[in-house]
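Incident log, structure service

09:12 report received: a user says their structure output differs between two submissions of the same chain.
09:20 pulled the input from the user's history:
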Amino acid sequence: MESNYSTQGGDRPVLNSTATLACIGRRQNYFKEEFLSALEILNRGDLTPDEMVGSWAGAFGPTQFMPTVYKKLAVDFDGDGRRDAVSDVADLIASTSNKLKKDGWQSGETWGYEVVVPRGFNYLLADRAKNYTLAQWQQLGLHRPDGKPFPHPNEKAFLLMPAGADGPGFLMLPNFRAILRYNPAESYALAIGHFADRLRGGQPFVQQWPSGDRVLSRDERYELQQLLAQRGFYKGQPDGNLGSDTRKALRSFQVSVGAPADGYASSTVLDRLRGQ
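09:34 re-ran on a clean worker, output below:
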């Protein structure tokens, strides 16, 4: 998922990228550590400079590890003396597993459950900070599409609505947070969890995404934040990146106009902001 089956890992020398960013930009201290870690990897004999090729920011290999992560968590699983998580499949899988384990992955447990969310639900509860037991979520009207019970009703989870009120819901368990520590994008983590289930013979999601839904362009996301700021809902600096502050602002706007407060940045809510 990180590199489209190792076909899009980047084409820039990691040493050049990290050295450049250690000298310019806002995060020079961060990239200084990345540059020094890249040197340590080479000095240890794990990789050659030609093998350390990646993105403009220094992430490299099929897993797109940064050098500091690679230095700390890469594994020599086949015992050949090199921690080669670039082209050695055994080392690659073991290093990825080690990263997830260190991030809190619980073996044998799932990442979460697809759930049906009832009409009229209070979407302000769909928030990473609001953790309730699965039994409590069930009392609020949420249930699995296939009608099966939750195996461990006392487990705590948060509700994710990736397509807003018109799409499916998901109750996310601690393993989902472990994937988020690998990559903080919720859409990415959801794709990883579902991909893993399908590889093991799992079924597709039952509920459909909204048919008319489309992803906003960066310019549209920037405009969305500007319009929210003009109306006093968004306090940050518009940058086109939709994070928790934008979601909170969107919910406040939706409450003000009597719409479901799901915080979802859709083309519909952008059109409504334009018309206000």
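09:41 both user submissions now match this output. Likely a transient worker issue. Closing.
09:42 reviewer note: The first strand starts at residue 12 and ends at 13. Residues 133 and 156 are 4 Å apart (CA to CA).
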